[in-house]
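Working notes for the structural subgroup meeting. M.R. asked for a predicted model of this chain before we commit to crystallization trials. I am recording the input and output together here so anyone reviewing the notebook later can reproduce the run.

Input as submitted:
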Amino acid sequence: MDSEKPVDDNLVCPYRGLFHFAPNDSEFFFGRDIFIEELYQATKTRNFIPVLGASGSGKSSVVFAGLIPRLQKQGNWLFTHFRPGSDPFHALSLALIPLYATNLNETEIIIQSDQLAESLSQRKTSLTRIFTQIQNKHPNKRLLLFADQFEELYTLCPDSKTQKSFLEILISNFSKDESLGLSAISNLSPVLVTTMRADFLGNALSYPDFADLLRKNDTKIKSMNRQELTEVIDKPAHKLGVKFESGLVERILNDIESQPGNLPLLEFALTELWNQGNSKQLTHQTYEEIGQVEGALARHADEKYKSITEVEKEKIRRIFIQLVRPGEGTEDTRRIAVKTELGKDNWSLVKKLADARLVVTSRNITEQETVEVVHEALIKNWGKLQEWMKTARIFRAWQDRLRATKELWEATNKDTDCLLRGAALVEAEERLKERPEDLISEQTFIEESIKEKTRVEQEEKQRQQRELEAAQKLAEIQTEAVTKQKKANKKLRLGTLGLSIISLIAFITAGWAWNQTRIAELNLVDSMGRNAL
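Returned structure, recorded in token form:
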């Protein structure tokens, strides 16, 4: 394939690949005019605008590159955004503090974010007070707070209490009813916009108060019609003077079949088509060479995968299965992994994957390096990854449950009561022997559980030994007592026999003495009788 770039090297690609459109990309963002207007009108009467839609339906882009630029033209809006992540209070704090504490450096912002997050979560302060501080710093400005990928509150935050507490502070500040009209909503009151995948609506509805708020306010992003999709494909290129070969736009439209989740694939295919083109015209031949819409991302992943060594391929398999969270009644989703989970030895390979645009690396709120799949479209369409997950699904589901237990153990200052026991520990021991390379960060937790089990078993053995020794001692005492009793009984029997013999002898002697006395008396009488005669 000719590697020459379209038009010239300085011509920017108007498509965003697997990334969402940002405010600076608004000139190339097409196809959502009607929905942008709907969101814009909602800001006039509502202070909570939840945007629901399928994965890949363009929720983030329509806010970043559609609604925000539209509001910026008014000149009286202030913007900030965050993703809930594993610690939504901290993520929210990081987004708000720079708006009213403008003289802080990055380190000071982190420190104050920790303090504000704790204060908000413990109800020591309220969002209302923070919004007042922002209002005082920016008079006549209205705040748009954008919570992107709100489903992370359920996929990345494991603590249900934190989820509920976070929703409660949002409800307390953004629960005005649209039916109350403009009189109930100040022209300067803040607006919360959230984007969330529709397949996580069930999670959100499980909390009744938040469910009521969603039912009154949700705004569902619709699938684009054919005309809107035509604008997405043709207008960005046309803006830069690049044309599509006759029939190619229609061919691409037929390939994507108007499925809302196919927008990321469409953007990636158009990006590949643009980058692989060699003239001012994007052609059918180039489109076929990139694998068309469905095959573009998978082809890209396969090409990168084939270019690495066999040893690296095995490491990549282990890396990618850690970046997928198995769905339970829902589709598989992206998972953010930290460096310690994948191992330092694998991180150089992670960097290569990032350079290849297959993963995205970043840092979390604790400054740990993180990595995630560049887009869920890769999970859905790369056959190799689907094969890996088919084999590893049971293990990964078990591993996620193990991690939840491990996080509880860590959250309780490593309380031994939270360690694994019984059948759960037996299974963990077996899996650690089978797949130590996949249980890098969990190994210590499992080993500590084994140590605790050994300690408890040793204590039990010692207890049993003490009880055995005590029982033996008691038996000895009892045996000695019985022996003594037997001896005493024997002496008693002998003593009784002796007394009986003595008594008998005394009786016989007494009888004999009496008899002798009687005989003597009779003899005397007889003698006296004879003398008398």
